[in-house]
Each structure stands twice: as C-alpha cells, then as structure tokens.
Amino acid sequence: MSMIMDRRSLRLLHAFAFLMLLLHLNPALGFISGVGDANVRCIERERQALLEFKKGLVDGYDILSSWGSQDQKKNCCKWKGVHCSKHTGHVLELDLRGDSEKTQPLRGKLSSSLLELHHLSSLDLSYNDFNMSKIPEFLGSFNNLKHLYLLEAEFGGTIPYELGNLSHLESIDLSANNFNNVANLQWLSHLSSLKELVLNSINLSEAYDWADVVNRLPYLTSLSLSSCDLPPIVPSTHTHFNYSKSLTAVDLSDNHQNSSIFGWLLNFNTSLVEINLSSNQLKGSIPDALGKMNSLDSLNFDKNQLEGSIPKSFGNICTLSSLSLSNNRLSGQLVEFINILSGCAKNSLEMLDLSLNQITGSLPDFSTFSSLKEIYVGTNNITGTVPKDIGNLHQLEVFDVSNNSMHGVVTEVHLSNLSNLWSLDLSLNSLALQLNKEWVPPFQLRVMYLSSCKLGPRFPSWLQTQWNISILDISNTGISDKIPKWFVELPPTLQYLDVSFNQLEGQLSPFVFPPKMTLLSIAENLFSGTISSVCKITGGVLNFLDLSGNLLSGEIPDCFMHWRKLVILDLSGNNLSGKIPTSLGSLSQLRTLSLRNNSFSGDLHLSMKNCSLLKFVDLGNNGFSGQVPAWIGEGLPVLNILILSSNKLSGSIPFELCWLKYLRILDLSLNDISGNIPQCFNNFTAMAQKGDFFTGIIGSNYTDSYAYDIEDVEEYVDDATVVMKGRELEYGKYLGLLKLINLAHNNLTGKLPSEILSLLELVVLNISKNNLIGEIPQMIGQLTQLESLDMSRNRFSGEIPSSMSELHFLSYLDLSFNNLSGRIPLGTQLQSFDANDFIGNWALCGLPLPQKCLGEETPNQSDQPIDRDGNEDNEADGDKFEKWFYFGAGVGFVASFGGICVPLLKSSWRDDYFLLLDNMKDWLYSTKLVMCMARLWRKFPSHG
C-alpha cells in the first residue's frame, strides 16, 4: 500500500512539475489584464523597455499617464494597454489602439527597445500616427508574435520583407496606411500559420502575384483586400495549386476584378461562407456553378455590371442568408427572382437586396420566406400595389420599395403585424398612407423615408409614437397643416429630419432640435419667426442645413462655430436681415453657401475666406455693400459659381477674381460696380473647357464621411437662378453645362477685353446697361457655344462683326441702343432676330431693320402709297408680308403636321417642341408689334 501511495505521490509530483514547465514555456496560458494578481510583478528589463518605448512617443492626450506613475511604477502589468502572464509576469500583449472616432492618437516612432519583450504574442498600434515612418524591420524578430495590428497608423515607405519571418503569425492587419506601391506579396507566402490577412486600402495595383500567394497559405480562413486597386486575376496562374479547404471569407470589394475571379473562387466551393465582390467590374450573367457552394451564407455582388437574372441553382443553397445584388443591370420580372429562390433557400434567406436594377413587374408575395428580415427592391421598374400579405412576414425588419412606380393605399392591414420593423422606405412612389388617427403602430422605427407619398393634408399623428427615430423624411407629402405641439420637442435620437416641400406652418423658435443632428431640411414651407433654435444643434456633426423658401425673419445667430462639419448651408428665400456673423468663417468644410433673396446687409466679411472649400456661393438679391472682395479670388480656390447680383456693391472688379480657374458662372449684375472689365478674364479656364453635368458640391475626390448617410449629400444638387435669354431661369443638375458671365446693370467703362473671346465654351454673356465703348471684337464669332448675348444700352460703335453670323446656337441677341453703324451682316442667323434687337442704333441698316442700306434696290415711286404729308407709306409692304407669312404658315402646317405629332408622343421631345413654339410666339408677337409701331410712327410723326 505504501508503495502504491508513493507511486501516486510521484505521479502527482511529476504532473505538477510538468504543469509548471508548461506555464514557463507557454506563458500565454494565463496573463494579467489591467490589475491582475497583485503578487505578480512585471519583469524589470521589460518595464525598462516599455519606458524607453514611451520616450519615442508624443502623448498629447496622456494616454500613457499610468506608465511610470508613483503608485504603479514598479508593476508595468498594471499600465494601460499592457497585458502580462498571470504566472510569470512577462508582457504578452501590448494594446495601444487609438480611438478612430475621437482622433486622439499617439505620435512618434517605434523604439527597438520593444525587442526585450521576448514573449510578446500580440501587438496593436492601430489608429495612431507614426508620421509616415517605415514599419521597423525589427518587428520581424518577435518569434512568438501571433497577432499584428497596424491598421490606419500612418506608416509609409515599403512593407519590410522581414515580416515574413513571423512564422507563428496568425493574423495581420496593415490596412489604410500610406505604403509605396507594393510590387509583390512574396513575403506573405512564408507566413505558414496565417489565418487572417487584412490589407484593405493599400495600393496593390502591381501585385499581380496576389492570388498565387494566397494559394500558398494552407490555414488561411479570412482574406480581405478591399479597395486595393487589385489587378484582375489571371486564369492561368491558379491551375497548379492544391487549394486550401479552410478559406471561409473573401472580401475583394472595390477593385478591378472581372468575371475571371469566379473560376478562382470555385476552387474553394466547399469552404466559402462569405463572398464580397461589390464595386468591381463583373459583367455578363452570374455563373450557375456558384450555386454549388453549399456552405455559402453571404454573397455580395453590389455595384457591378451583371445582367440577366439569378441562377436557378441559388434556390438550392440551403445555407444562404444574405444575397445582395444591388446596382447592377439585372432584368426580368420580380416574381421570377422570387420563384428561383423558393427552393430550400426560402427557409434560410434573411436579406435580399435587388435595388437599383432594371427589374419589372408587380410586388409579389414574400410570405413563404419565413426567415426574411430585410427586403430591398428600390429603384427598379416595379408597379402595382403593396400586397397585404407583406404583413405575414413577422420577422421583417427592413422594407424598401423606394423610387418605383407603385400606387395604391397602405393601411394598418399592411403594417399591424410587423412588430420587428425598424426601417421603412416607401419614398418616390404614388402611394398614399391612410392610417387611422388613433392607430398605434406595433413597431418602433429608426429609419423612415416617405418622401413623395401622400400623407396629408393633416400632420400624421401616429408619428408621435416613434420615439426611437433617427432618420425621418416626410418631404413633399402633401401636408398642409400647423405643426402640432407634440412635434416641436423632437426625439433625442433624431439625426436626420427632412420635411421640405410641404405647407407646414408655425414658429421655428419653439423647436427643440437634438444636439447631434446631421441633416435638417425644412425648405419650401411656411415656417416663420427667428432661426435661433437651430443653435441648439451643438453636437458638432451637422453637415446639411436647408431652411430656404420660408417666412423666416430676424438676424442669423452667431453659432456657426458649432457646425464645423457643415457642408451645405442654404438660407435663401426668406426675410432674414442683418450682417453675416463672423463665425461663418468657422465652416472650413463648407461647399455650398446660398443666402439669396433675403435682406442681408453690410460687407462680405474677411472671415469667409476661411471657407476655402466653397464651390457654390449665391448671395444675390440682398443689400450687401462695399467692394467685391479680393479675398474671394485669394481664399476660395475651387469656387465654381459666384453670384453677387442685385446688391449694393461698388468699386471695381478685383483682378484677384481671375485666380478662380474653376469658375463657371460669374454674376455681378445689378450693382454699382465701376471701372474696366479686367483683361485677365481669360484665366477662367473652366469656361474654355467642356463641362459635365454639375453634381452639386460633391466632387469625385470627396471622401469625408460627415453625413449620416453620405449619399444624401452626394445627391444634393445646387440650384441657381440666372438671367438667360432675357428671363430668369432656374438651373439644377444641368448647371455644369452652363458657362455664364453677367455684368449687366453696372457702371462699367472702357472696352470689352478681347481676352474674353478665349472662353470658347461660354454660353451666356450679358454686359448690357453699362457705359462700355469701342467696337465689338471682330473675332466674337469664335464663341461658338453662345446661346445668349446681350450688349444692349452701352456705347459700342462701329460695324457689327461679320463673324457674328457664325454663332449658330445663338437664340437670344440684343444689340439695341448703342452707336453701331453699317449693314447688319447677312446670314441666316442675324436675320432671324427681331428688329427690336437692333433698334436705337441710328446708323444701322439692313434686315431685320426696316431701314435699307445705301445702294439697295428700292421700289418704284408709283408703287408706294403716299400719306397726306407726301411721305411714302410702307403699310402696304406690311400687309404683303402678313399675307405671305400666313400663306406660308398654312402650307408649312399641312406639310409638317405628321412630322410633329409623332415626336409629341415622347415627353422630352414634347417639352422641347412647346418651348420652341413659345419662343416662336414671342418672336411673332414682337415682329407684329414693331410693324404696328412703325405704322403709328409714320401716321403720327413728331413735329419738333
């Protein structure tokens, strides 16, 4: 018995010794996190190494304040971000990840003193700022390192090959750094233990070996190479590898992959669970073979160019829970898509996104999809009504049928069973919500888009039950009502509110706006009172503020300093007055500023120069005074549109405006500006180049994510009211095609600079009602894109240049009341205008004026009627003209009737046609009026 006990004791002793040995060899079996075991102290040499590491960092936010403090200085295991073994005290993890939202990083460089941390298994320095320094090569010497995270840490240079020595590394994330173009990824092929590889937002455009390297990683389970400019896979490069059966997740979104990638993916058909190929260059149909991936859970092919329908095999993927095919070219009947997925996939499918395609048909019955939580079919060609069976989807959380051609009524029957619904988007349809006044919804919506649906005329009372709402858009919904008292105290969760284009009445001042709103639009309503309540939005995230088209009054409160992320500010069309607060200069991210049609006064303050990203400025129709500021040209380098018309500005046009090379529209009309037109206007190079459609304030390089939903800011289009062809016209998305200079109604003197003639894409030039002299430049005909030219009421002299007859797009011309002389150049263009466009030039002759030029053939005296004073009466000529015109018009009507009726069937042609008729009517009316006035002039001549 004693021998047995001794053996048992010996075994226990051996087991205990073996356990201690394991703990010594593998300290990762236990570690101290934060406070840990008070009896275990960190290793002194490791403590000193960490203090040396700290010396190389700039810690402006005292993130490392606990390092070396008096009460803890001897135990580094209690320092922030340091995790030690519970048993040995060795540092196992160093987690100094910064805060990506608050932007409070450590700065500096990495010290090689870290090499003293021999047992380090995890290093995370993400979201810090290492000032474009290179990743130290010594990081490749951490033999025990398993996890390396350097995400968005401002590293630069090249990726060191030494990282390939980390043979125990299981996960690595180097995303969003500023490395030089990576020629290859061969260093990765040595990481034989790697399971997770993340290199998002790194330039890999030259890394043609990426697929070969991935094929050599036998234990890789997750691959993420999003936004890497990744070259398309070459089919021949992946034919001789034994592919890993462990790869479960692939994210190659936002690259240049074409349909060859499908062949590579099929090599992992038994293991892949998640595939993300959104924003690539996939074309043609979706391969049927993808349906053989019997483990597939999530498939995302958004933003490609895929065509046709979905493969029938997809209905047999019994594990498929998420299918996202948004923004492609898919076509066919929606019911066909649903029938295909009605195999075993109907039991697993939770999310279906077919939005932004070309799918037709009515909304089918989804009720057999018992697990369905999210439906997105917006922006297609779907018709019909919302089926009542939608209420049977008890799990439904998101329902989006926006921007289709649906009609009919939505009632409580559709919505009463959807207790899990949190996002509802019925916008941009012809749907009417007829919900009982006392109805209490079973859901709490966080997102609600009902724009262009019929909600009115009363304000929907059921909205007061939705106290978790974050996004509320009820714009253009036919509400004509006073704002109820319960609505002025908005839910604290609200971040996005759009009630524009209704007939809402009420004071704005009682509103309690949540401090963290990102978007507020109450445009085109009947709101009144001051706007002081918007100053309650103090959270610093507001990026869109549109209060235009109301009855708001008073001065602008000085609270712009709270809105440093504001991108769009539109206060136009109100009764606001006073001076612009200097805090407007705090808006360093502002792209659009519209204060048009108010009663603002004072100078344009220098602080606005700080809004250096402004692209659109419309301050027209106010009472601003002083000179046109030179700082506009100095401080707003990307300005596209500048409208300062109808103010009280004086002085001369500063030459600094010529620095605005992106300027497309310059309107300084209806002011008191004097001096010469600067000769440097030829620096407006955007007016010499063909322009694209104006997409508002967001350019192609706009990457800031200020908006709650940045697409709402991207889709915003600036509107500008400009004088063109003698009338005020409002331009929206076509603003970029308009190149305009309007200097009318000022006191400008001197000659028209010939440098303006280099602006070859100029569409509108209006310099009327000034004191300009000299001749019209001879080469004005090279402005071939001109559609509207107004030089009237100046003191231009000399002949009309013959090149003007070459302005074939010119549809509005006014040269009246100048000192022009000679013959109007012959050609189909100038003779098509009215005589009124040339009157007031007493030495001008030729058609369309009645005055004939010397040497022209005149009728016999006997053919001219003589009035009682012995003067020739041209009334007979007028009568002949009228008879000829009406005869010709009749023949033209018969000949062209058939050719006109067919184009009228198409709406866009029909609109252009009636615009043409409207212009012809104006021309005929003015022609007739001139003839009548000429007769009266002859019959009742002036006598002294």
TrEMBL record:
Keyword annotations of the record: Cell membrane, Glycoprotein, Leucine-rich repeat, Membrane, Receptor, Repeat, Signal, Transmembrane, Transmembrane helix
Parts forming coiled coils: none
Keyword Glycoprotein: yes
Region forming the signal peptide: 1-30
Highest taxon, organism lineage: Eukaryota
Amino acid composition bias (Basic and acidic residues), ranges on this chain: 865-875
Membrane topology listed for this record: Single-pass type I membrane protein
Protein name, UniProt field: Leucine-rich repeat-containing N-terminal plant-type domain-containing protein
